[in-house]
Write the structure tokens for this entry.
Amino acid sequence: MTVIGIDLGTTNSACGYWTEDGPKLIPNRLGELLTPSVVGLDEAGAVIVGKAAKERLIDHSGSTVAAFKRLMGSDHKIMLNKKLFSAPELSALVLRSLKEDAEAFLGEPVTEAVISVPAYFDDNQRHATKLAGELAGLKVDRLINEPTAAAIAYGLHQKQEGTFLILDMGGGTFDVSILEFFDGVMEVHASAGDNFLGGEDFVEAMVDALLNELQIEKSSLDVRLLQTLYMQMESAKRRVSQMDTQEILLDFGGEKIRWSLTRDWFSRVATPLILRSKRPIERAMSDANLSPAQIDDIVLVGGSTRLALFRSTVGRIFGRLPSTHIDPDTVVALGAAVQAALLSKNSALDDMVLTDVCPYTLGTGVVNEDSPQQGLYFLPIIERNSTVPVSVVRRLATAADNQTELQLEIYQGENRLVKKNIFLGQLNIKIPKAPRGKEEIDVRYTYDMNGLLEVDVTVVSQNKTYSKLIQRNPGVMSEKEKEASLKKMAALKFHPRESEVNRALIAKGERLYEASLGDKREKIAAILSQFDAILDRQNVNEIKKAQLQVKELLESLDSEDWL
Ligand code: AMP
């Protein structure tokens, strides 16, 4: 049975599997390798995923949602047609669609997967991703860090040994990793990142700067106009590296404004974000104790690394340009597919070993006698960038006379004070009465390859152990909630695969129709009504042929202009 590798991206997702010729991507039902991570409900309450949903983002913004990966691990819910969805539920719908596509392509049931996550995802976010897999009916064999996946795919592809710097900037996150591939062992030396820096931030900055220049209040624009503006800035951003100036027709409801977007303008707007991306690069380099000259290759992952401004900044830091011959959009899914094959012990891959690191420091709080008003000090137990799996024990003593209870608080972060770090959970421990410092406890933290933390506390004098697998996470459901969620998902309506292709086409046609005028509008209307008539006849072969024609016609009309 095939275990698939999935890149569950903020903007797009992809999946791959292992073949005799190495990892390969699995096309979705539309024959495309990338499935937009967008989910919606139609008027009849049926679920729409991927491209068809993406086409509806503007016109049906109340029932369509994108970029929910950013909400993984939080308890934020999203309302679609009066139904509330959590980020894992929405992700599950994308995963389920990928699973179905893989099953159709491979011709067998797919029940297990390796899913990639940003290296900087914390414990909550990892749990949420695993949960999304379960809700989609997939056993998640392993969560793999995205940069690690990229390095595996790259290392295998190049059959090259050496030290790699992986820079991964997608729609919502930025990850930096340093890996060494030597003698069949892929070792992660350091990883760092920014969970809130990605392609969408550039678009946000462009929209804000533009509205600021034109002295238009964002809140004064209606949702549709604002979303159109976001889409225009998104496509302008994708072209900015190739075009010095772009003419854009802006519509703020009243008069239309013709506006020239120059590369210089973009550089000014984007520079603060580009500067932010330098911080994790520097941190990973110093954690790995390496100088730029010791990096053999720089590998780019994620759509946002296509920005020339980003590439030249990286070029300036390292004195050479990054490698660009591997597609940054699909390299993670390929690496996840290799990891999937490694786990299912595929013989072609026997001699590759993978090590990873814990991307953040895990510790506990200890009494701060110097300035108690500041709260507890953070005592690191597992230091960031330790190779995993890792298990570390530290012995602590009681802080007060006759203390009979101890609350061990578990934190993740890099700050000296616990209040500035992320609280993960706590363990309550009973201790025999004794003068302060007399009773001791051993605190053991174990962090595994999936990024799950296990805490064991042993009261030394009694040899009694209290254990906790960190689970008290917002956004992560109890078994009961999980059941309810599964029921809710089962009750959602799903369309047969044929009709999803049609939906994507019709949604695209409708969007184009709305965006066009005059002759072009009529042409689109004619194409759509002809297509409707063919669909009504329900002849599979005729529909297939028509799909191709409609696709081509709409694409050529779409590329006529890009307003
Ligand atoms: P991912 O999450 O890896 O799919 O990344 C998608 C992100 O890459 C989105 O924010 C896109 O806007 C961005 N992107 C894709 N192509 C380009 C491009 N040519 N130039 C700049 N950004 C791009």
Summary: Residues 4-197+272-356 form a domain with the Nucleotidyltransferase; domain 5 fold (CATH 3.30.420.40).
